Amino acid sequence: MQITLEIIDRLAQSIQSRIKSQPHIGLILGTGLGGLAQAIQNATIIPYRELPDWPVSTVMGHTGQLVIGELEGQPVLAMQGRIHYYEGYTMQQVTLPVRVMQRLGIKILIVTNAAGAIQPDFVPGDVMLITDNLNLAGMSGLNPLIGPNLDEFGPRFPDMSQAYDRQLCDLARKVAREGNLLLREGVYAGLSGPSFESPADLRFLRIAGADAVGMSTVSEVIVARHGGMRVLGFSGISNKANLDGNSITSHEEVLESGHLIVPKLETLIRGVLRSL
Ligand code: HPA
Question: N or C terminus of the chain with fewer C-beta within 10 Å?
Answer without folding.
Answer: N
